[in-house]
Give the backbone structure.
Amino acid sequence: WSNGVSARKFRPLNETRVVLTTGRPGDNYGAIALDASASIVYVTKSGQLFSYSLDRVPGVLLHYAGGSSLALEGPKNVVAIGFIYFFIVGPSHVPAAAGNIFIADYSYHVISMINATSGDVTTVAGNATGHGMKNAAAPLSAQFGYLGGITFDLDGNMLICDWSNNKLRRF
């Protein structure tokens, strides 16, 4: 999906077309996810989270989350979000997660959730005291290294790829 300057949509028979572009080298796209309706794409670009409607022509990238505050919790347009290596839109089979966006924050070593209704960001796993390896019964007491992917299993457990600790963790 990314060549550093534009995102491409793949169609049957290997046809591709550019659906959005920054036009500026250095504004690199990173992680990407679809909402449940498959009409909104969320992408990371230069450490911020943006949304893009696949139904809109021409494509306009809208700022979705990330700000200049040092706070890790609060309104999505104000909070600090570090390097977003991976994020996921909560699946419908997990009612408490459905539609919310979960971010594996590579810089702060936490999993943050953007509430789809209120837009507030909360930390749901890990703590920002530094990276390391600490298992804990309470997700907020756990400590992670540099985070990779996130997903949910069929029982609603969150699975987290703790990249620098070489662990797959479950909460």
